[in-house]
Amino acid sequence: MMALGMRRRTWSCLSVSLAAGLLAMTAAATPARSAPEVLMVVLDEAKLVKLPDRLATLVIGNPLIADAALQAGGNVVLTGKGYGSTNLMALDRTGKVLMEKTILVRAPGNTVVVYRGIERQTYSCTPNCDRRIMLGDSAADFTATLGQIGERNTKAQAAGR
């Protein structure tokens, strides 16, 4: 009676091993899809990217993270709008994907973030530290700095006339 039980266990182990081997062979035979290339873009900066020929449609996954402006000559200007990652796809007229890339938007270098409780202020230190508006800064500081920039631009435009 014990011998019969042993045979069943052996057969059961053999079946599991055989199934695992077949699964591994199938996975090895299936071509792996390569990960899309990553384009690093700095927040509030632009990057020029060459597009493939026969482009008909350009898709940005999340336009709150990155923006794309199509230019003559098959180029696109990518601008970092918010932190995070999204994707860019270039399609031809039939909908075939000609290019797919991941866009990763990061903070600019040489910035210092100061926290005072829940209040946050960002400074750009290149070479002196000056206020810089960044996503995530305190609403009052963000609005005040943005107002000062707008007023300064208005006065500069009026002086240039």
What does this structure look like?
This protein has 161 residues and is α+β, with helices and mostly antiparallel strands. Helix content is 30%, strand content 39%. The chain is built from 2 helices and 10 strands. The chain has a 4-stranded mixed β-sheet, with no helix packed on it. It has a 3-stranded antiparallel β-sheet with strand order 2-5-4, with no helix packed on it. A hairpin with a 3-residue loop joins β4 (66-71) and β5 (75-80). The N and C termini lie far apart (104 Å).
Write the layout of secondary structure elements.
Layout: H1 2-29, E1 37-42, E2 46-50, E3 57-60, E4 66-71, E5 75-80, E6 84-91, E7 97-106, E8 111-116, E9 119-125, E10 129-132, H2 139-159
Parallel strand pairs: 1-7
Antiparallel strand pairs: 2-5, 3-6, 4-5, 6-7, 8-9, 9-10
Span from first to last CA?
A: 104 Å
Shape summary: globular
Helix content: 25-40%
* Topology pattern, helix = H, strand = E: HEEEEEEEEEEH
Number of strands: 10
Radius of gyration from CA coordinates: 27 Å
Number of domains: 2
Quote the average pLDDT: 81
Features:
161 residues, alpha+beta, Immunoglobulin-like, 2 domains, 4-stranded mixed β-sheet, 3-stranded antiparallel β-sheet, 10 strands, disordered N terminus
The gist of it:
With 161 residues, the protein is of the alpha+beta class. Helix content is 30%, strand content 39%.
